[in-house]
Predict the structure of 3-dehydroquinate synthase.
Amino acid sequence: MLKVPVVLPGREYNIIIEQHCLQHINDYVDPSREIVIITDDNIPKQYLNTIAPLLGDPFTLFVPQGESSKSMEMAQLLCEKMLKEGITRNALILALGGGMVGDLAGFVASIYMRGIDYIQIPTTLLSQIDSSVGGKVGVNASIMKNAIGAFKQPQLVLIDSTTLQTLDQRQVNSGIAEMIKYGLIASKSLFKALLEDDILPNIDNYIYECVSIKRDVVIKDERDTGVRQILNFGHTIGHAIEQASKYQLLHGEAVAIGMVIMAKNKSYYNDLIHLLAKYNLPTSYEYDKDEIYQYITTDKKATKTSLNIIVVDEVGNGYIEPIEISQIKEKL
Ligand SMILES: O=C(O)C(=O)C[C@@H](O)[C@H](O)[C@H](O)COP(=O)(O)O
Ligand SMILES: [Zn+2]
């Protein structure tokens, strides 16, 4: 078992990485609590069949799989269903699934009766190494991804990497794109290992390294006003492309393309292209520059006139560079 403590002012929680931990989830989650599981309708049934009996068969809410469930309407619907079921504010939400479920369920936890506890149980690689950690929760608006949300840290993040065995390869690769991002912004050795090694036999160590990088950044800047923005490398253009594709591209795929655009003329460009090809990730996308620019103007790192972009000049060292917002056009 690997443990990464996240210590924030007034709050502390652990990220636990342990294969098969779902099989004894009652050692981590108090079964005597009032529990609500939020998951999606595509979750392999064996996870629910494993955890539900150990937790006293909790009230379980399913949302349709896919990014379109990450909406205000869905958050409201879940709240209404919990109210009808008589769920009190002592309840604990378990977010069981990928990034969409974690963001949505965490958001519901942040607003239900002004806020209740939640635990992240991420089952995709992307959610295990990234979205389940750091407390960014929220839903999408029609013209902006993750536009409506909160910072709400979980009580615990419970990662059972054996869930990756049921994940399709495209989803695994999407997670690897965020892993490549961690290498680029913070770890030369991780980037090198991704290039040279087969990560799956040692997946828990890779997850540990990624969440440790993320933890170290988040504890310095929980609210994303400074250094945390480096975790957004590749996302300024990536989010715009993800939206322009109408979410046909997975998040990691769009971030991969965003990273390639930001890596132009850098020394590691060829290595990055090679790495993305190794994991079957896209390196380009046909897009309408005006449309992408429009989306970028709503980036959370933008003001009316300026934008913080994340730059990586050499592998392992990401930094923030403020530019005039229109200057981003030169990169498109
Ligand atoms: O946790 C963060 O901070 C990140 O930027 C991590 C990103 O990989 C993640 O996609 C995040 O949800 C993006 O947040 P946003 O604030 O740019 O919507
Ligand atoms: Zn991301």
The chain is about 40% helix and 20% strand. The chain has a mean pLDDT of 97.
